[in-house]
């Protein structure tokens, strides 16, 4: 059963040559655990109304974008106006800006232009996905190395945000254990054997999330637009390049030999395609029940744990880690669009099929937001999972009057 929802307004940043739309479909699930973030200009204080022009969601193909395939493995939807499931959106520093944030924007807007896109697929609850939605883009773009070394900024920010999520879950588990122990003592002092179990952190499963994100960046001293893609888990990013689907990520699942070997080296095992028979992915944020926390032998620095050390949350004793794999590329004339989506879509649509479908819809009506909705809705007819996607069109220019 589909739940009522709303569609985000499309945004555009022609300084980076991007137009985008995004949509989330709850599908048959009882709850919506996906979260998305799409920010046209990370250095702007608010979602400006000036971006929402009549052309903001219209796709204008680059003259050298290559041929597009007429073959599509998905039936082209004929229905109109059926808005999908619950939709979740976070802007960049929305609300009233503090003096510190205003100064940060003023300092950074003269160094470059940046856009941020992220899809977060929660499991076991939505608390970790919501934390990523609220914190991850902030942690990345405010990192001291963002303009000089964005790969480092992404790596260290993901480590820090995962540490925050786990610390919060750990504190909650400890509090639950203390309250249970206190209640037991009040009821009876004749059964001390119950206390060790009650004082131990709960073994109940807690929430986690996988993620895929893309940072689109151009410095003021260069005309080149560079895209940094990072992923943790089985959310995926695919670019349509001259009609071909080019995968920018490789799912972190036990089916990957290197991932299975890493899990086994840490003392885990793979059963029924899951880590320890429980988790379908080998990397995720949160999931404290699958991690050694507090981490052993974490190297401390003046600014906190050393995120790139060989121990801590990414240590050899950790079966599940939130260390992202990164891919960086410079946008070329052949690059048409990127699709960032949760596994609810990729489980039922293969990479080339998604590129074919989106390309065909864009050439049919040029509406990026509409194409996002169509992709999510069509996947939801086959999938039993939440379906969320962001489509980012590249090499975009302001339309002329004839267009």
From TrEMBL:
Q: Which residues form the PPM-type phosphatase domain?
A: 93-394
**How does the record classify its membrane topology?**
Peripheral membrane protein
List, in alphabetical order, the Gene Ontology terms for molecular function in this entry.
metal ion binding; protein serine/threonine phosphatase activity
Keyword Metal-binding belongs to the record: yes
Out of the domains of life, which is the source?
Eukaryota
Q: What is its main location?
A: membrane
Instruction: List the InterPro entries hit by this protein, alphabetically.
Output: PP2C (IPR015655), PP2C_BS (IPR000222), PPM-type-like_dom_sf (IPR036457), PPM-type_phosphatase-like_dom (IPR001932)
Keywords tagged on the record: Hydrolase, Metal-binding, Protein phosphatase
GO cellular component terms attached to this protein's record: membrane
Q: Which CDD domains match?
A: PP2Cc
- What Pfam families does the annotation carry? PP2C (PF00481)
Protein family membership: Belongs to the PP2C family.
Q: What is this protein called?
A: Phosphatase 2C-like domain-containing protein
The uppermost taxa in this organism's lineage are: Eukaryota, Sar, Stramenopiles, Ochrophyta, PX clade
């Amino acid at each position: 059963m589909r739940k009522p929802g709303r569609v985000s307004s499309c945004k555009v940043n022609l300084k980076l040559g991007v137009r985008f739309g995004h949509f989330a479909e709850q599908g048959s699930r009882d709850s919506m655990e996906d979260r998305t973030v799409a920010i046209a200009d990370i250095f702007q204080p608010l979602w400006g109304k000036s971006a929402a022009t009549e052309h903001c969601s219209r796709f204008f193909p680059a003259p050298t974008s290559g041929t597009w395939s007429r073959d599509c493995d998905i039936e082209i939807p004929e229905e109109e106006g059926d808005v999908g499931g619950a939709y979740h959106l976070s802007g960049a520093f929305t609300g009233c800006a503090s003096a510190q944030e205003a100064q940060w924007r003023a300092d950074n807007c003269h160094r470059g232009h940046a856009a941020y896109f992220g899809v977060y697929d929660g499991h076991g609850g939505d608390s970790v996905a919501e934390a990523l939605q609220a914190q991850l883009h902030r942690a990345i773009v405010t990192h001291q190395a963002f303009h000089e070394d964005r790969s480092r900024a992404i790596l260290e920010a993901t480590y820090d945000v995962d540490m925050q999520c786990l610390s919060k879950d750990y504190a909650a588990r400890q509090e639950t254990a203390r309250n249970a122990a206190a209640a037991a003592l009040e009821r009876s002092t004749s059964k001390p054997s119950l206390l060790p179990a009650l004082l131990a952190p709960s073994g109940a499963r807690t929430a986690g999330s996988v993620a895929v994100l893309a940072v689109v960046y151009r410095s003021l001293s260069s005309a080149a637009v560079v895209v940094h893609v990072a992923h943790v888990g089985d959310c995926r990013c695919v670019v349509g390049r001259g009609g071909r689907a080019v995968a920018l990520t490789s799912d972190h699942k036990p089916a990957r030999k290197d991932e299975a070997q890493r899990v086994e080296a840490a003392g885990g095992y793979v059963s029924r395609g899951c880590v320890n028979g429980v988790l379908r992915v080998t990397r995720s944020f949160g999931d404290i029940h699958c991690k050694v926390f507090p981490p052993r032998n974490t190297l401390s620095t003046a600014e906190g744990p050393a995120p790139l050390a060989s121990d801590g949350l990414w240590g050899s004793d950790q079966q599940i880690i939130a260390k992202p794999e990164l891919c960086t590329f410079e946008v070329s004339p052949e690059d048409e669009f990127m699709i960032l989506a949760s596994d609810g879509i990729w489980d039922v649509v293969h990479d080339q099929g998604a590129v074919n479908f989106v390309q065909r819809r864009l050439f049919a009506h040029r509406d990026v937001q509409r194409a996002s909705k169509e992709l999510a809705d069509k996947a939801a007819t086959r999938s039993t999972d939440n379906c969320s996607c962001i489509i980012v069109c590249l090499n975009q220019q302001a339309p002329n009057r004839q267009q």
